[in-house]
Amino acid sequence: MTSPEDSQRIPPLQPPYSPSVETALSRWMPPGSPIEPLLLFRTLMVNEELAGRMRPLGAGILGASATVEPLLREVMIHRTCGLTGASYEWGVHAVGFGLPLGLTEAQLHSTVHGSSADRCWAPRERAIMRLAEELHTTSTISDALWTELSASLQEAQILELIVTAGWYHVIAYLCNGLALAHEAWAPGFPPPGAQAPASPAGA
Question: Where do runs of H (alpha helix) occur along the chain?
Fold first, then answer.
């Protein structure tokens, strides 16, 4: 019997894991998570040394020491995933972060099928949507948007948002380039007009 993972270009590691992989995967996942290590992480661990170099930046973006408030961070991540077609990562974040943090179904839908012009966004959130869009399409930031961002964000926060956009472009290249299978609990992009996925128990 085949599984969705069989269609991936690089098969993910399967348990039982070596002690070093077991330790590394536990560091990639949130403490006490009841969910099996993500397919993305188990695939990255095929190159254990590379995965070890990547983890500190990814963990820092999502960690307690980050300077950007979680909701704005997730707006950046969701819009970047939407623009790059990274449906795997969008689904993981929609279920694991976006919905629990309070992103509405309309907002989640907008990150994939809409834009910063949609009425569901408050001014600060709209500016982050625009930042994701400008960085994706032009690889720079317009003077007008920079002025708007500077009015409500610290320089350290703007720097972190730019790095977050870049990091999730890297993640999108991995998800799309590897033809990563979706997690069973995070099916990916909603079709136009559809509602966002519900959060699984314990996520």
Answer: 19-28, 39-44, 48-62, 70-84, 87-93, 99-101, 105-113, 123-138, 143-152, 155-177
